[in-house]
Amino acid sequence: MGYHEDARRIKALTDENRLAILVALQRGEKCGCELLEELKISQPTLSHHMRILAGSGLVNCRKDGKWMRYSISAGGVHSFRQMVDSYARCDCETDPTICCDAARRKRIAFICVHNSCRSQIAEALGKHLLGNKYDFYSAGTQTKPQINQDAVRLMKRLYSIDMELTQYSKTIDKIPAPDVAISMGCDVGCPFIGRPFDDDWGLPDPTGQSDEVFVSVIRQIEAKVRDLDRKLGRD
To answer: Which domain holds residue 55?
Structure first.
């Protein structure tokens, strides 16, 4: 199953300097000279860690004059997440005949067509507000290459949440079977998920709209997440 290769890739994250490099690159491509100054490390140390990060597929490198420039590899990060997910899971998530935790928390999934905006916001706010009580997921019937960048920017501004750290656009078959499935709204067509929705939040899609519209939708999602907790508490 490629354990040796996967272990080598995972080892790329087992050093504090490499973690600091990845955090620094989350803000965009950087020259090696910038990383040396920011992280207070030597050139040989930077080169050593970059070889490991590039070898794991997490970082892109390109020559620019006498310096190298580095950036996060979106494709590499996506592949890395899928690889980790293949190990850090239990078959009880998808097979109801397997039960390793009789008192497991309810799984709540937010569904829209592309899983790039409203459902991603709902997942992030669910984890932020109620992550100690429920397991939250989001998915769609189609995917986008990345989460809506206006949503990412505004969630950072409003809640200091970086959705791109742990979330990505995915299809319904990539998440565990939910106990509660919620549609974000059918203004762009209701996706078919193989079972009825437990609720339809009827939220407008803010994609391409002003920040004011976006913030209004985000606040509506926050209110509905909080109300969902009250409803489930009554069940």
So the answer is: 3-76
